[in-house]
Specification:
Number of strands: 6
Largest sheet: 6 strands, mixed
CATH topology: Nuclear Transport Factor 2, Chain: A
Number of helices: 6
Strand content: 35-45%
Length: 206
């Protein structure tokens, strides 16, 4: 791959990552489906399954008024032929009611994407968010809100407030997802390196 080819691939992959966030948050489901590989897989705090299942679950939540928005920062892309790993700084912002109080949770981390060329286009084979830290804020600064500290502490530090909110909303929360450090994120990095070296699968989704 020439330098120009690598640059073109990185630009195309960045576009895929940006389209994921814009089309998913806008509820543009037909175009959202185009960013995924035919074997695409998504893991999140509240969901684990195929891309098509994720699209349907996201659509159902969107139509029910679930408010989850994504904001992107810088992207680092490693390309090896028709495969790539992209890491993109992001925040997940979810608004909901917790113990009768309107709140926002902001979770900061990275999207860790396994990508492959399919049908001449870069597409996401597997997306695994890395959850680095989060916080919860009441929309009304004067509101009184007391979280159950035992429940809060039962979730990983990188997404414990997000998990608390989502569990209150009725979601089943996945434990053990990658954070800034630890075994889960180290395993993910190893899976990414293996993907670039030609492994038969994009790791083992959590």
């Amino acid at each position: 791959m020439t330098r120009d080819d690598a640059l073109a691939a990185r630009l195309q992959i960045r576009e895929v990552v940006e389209n994921w966030a814009v089309w998913r948050d806008a509820g543009d489901w037909d175009r959202f489906a185009t960013v995924w590989h035919s074997s695409g897989y998504m893991t999140a705090t509240w969901f684990q399954g195929t891309a098509s299942e994720f699209i349907e679950a996201s659509r159902t939540g969107f139509e029910a008024g679930v408010s989850i928005l994504h904001f992107l920062g810088g992207t680092s892309v490693d390309v090896a032929g028709d495969r790539a790993i992209a890491q993109t700084k992001m925040t997940i912002n979810q608004r909901a009611v917790v113990h009768g109080v309107d709140v926002d949770v902001v979770c900061t981390g990275r999207f860790y994407d396994f990508l492959e060329v399919e049908g001449g286009q870069w597409r996401i084979v597997r997306r695994q968010p890395i959850y680095e830290k989060d916080r919860l804020d009441a929309l009304d600064p004067a509101a009184e809100l007391s979280l159950d500290q035992d429940v809060l502490a039962s979730f990983p530090v990188g997404y414990r407030h997000l998990a608390y909110l989502q569990q209150e909303a009725g979601f089943t929360i996945r434990q053990g997802l990658p954070g800034l450090t630890g075994e889960a994120v180290s395993t993910l990095y190893d899976e990414g390196a293996a993907w670039l070296e030609g492994s038969t699968t994009a790791g083992i989704p959590l």
